[in-house]
Amino acid sequence: MADSLEPPTWPLMVFYGMSIASLPFYFVVFACLLRLRCFTTFYNTTFYSILLQHCIADLLAMIIFFAAVDARTYPFLKEYYFEYQHFYVAAASYNNIYYFLYVRCTGIIFLFFQRYLIITAPTSLITHKVQNASKLQIISVYWGVPTVISIVVLKDFNFSYDNLENMSIMADQEVIKRNTLMALIVVSLTCVICSSLYGSLFYYIRKHTAGLSRSLRREVHLAIQVFVLLLAFFVILAYYGFQNYFSQTQNTGPIFYMRALYPVANGLLSYINPFCILFLNKDLARQVTIFATCHKLPVSEVQVSTVNSHSTQRKHF
Question: Does Ribonucleoprotein count among this protein's keywords (predicted)?
Answer without folding.
Answer: no
